[in-house]
Design goal:
Blueprint lengths: L3 H24 L3 E8 L2 E7 L4 E7 L8 E6 L9 E8 L2 E7 L5 H4 L9 E4 L4 E7 L10
Antiparallel strand pairs: 1-2, 1-8, 3-4, 3-5, 5-6, 7-8
């Protein structure tokens, strides 16, 4: 038998369920920084509002396993030793070129909200979006 309490509980749960996307979206905060991490080491942090192109390149020659960032001037050729080419523009970041076979990081598209991540597993690279005063929740080594 259904009581008035059951109906009230169902209505409350329905309202909470419909409102939860709003609460989750506002809890993410304002995105402001792009953090680039390779092999557990943070290589760079960039303002999401400034347009730029960043290349993750091998330092110490091919196969060294070490990476560094190279901020490119507009129209500059990144060179041949590029592992990943990252474009930050219009308040979003995306990988436009990768030297790995699967191209999964390129297919992931753009990220723009705090907490979103692009991962390139072959290069052990993470690109994450954080808000003011935040740091990435996880760093994979």
């Amino acid at each position: 038998m259904i009581t008035k309490a059951d109906i009230v509980l169902a209505v409350v749960l329905l309202v909470l369920g419909l409102c939860s996307p709003f609460f989750l979206r506002t809890a993410q905060g304002e995105a402001s920084r792009v953090i680039i991490t390779v092999d557990g080491e943070q290589l760079g942090s960039f303002d999401l509002s400034e347009n730029r192109t960043v290349a993750v390149v091998e330092s110490g020659g091919e196969g060294s396993g070490k990476a560094m960032l190279k901020v490119l001037a507009k129209g500059e050729d990144p060179g041949e030793d590029v592992l990943n080419l990252i474009v930050i523009e219009g308040g979003a970041a995306r990988v436009v070129q990768a030297s790995c076979g699967g191209q999964d990081c390129v297919k992931m598209g753009s990220i723009s909200r705090s907490g979103e991540v692009i991962a390139c597993l072959p290069h052990k690279m993470l690109i994450s979006i954080t808000g003011d005063g935040e740091s990435p929740d996880v760093i994979i080594k």
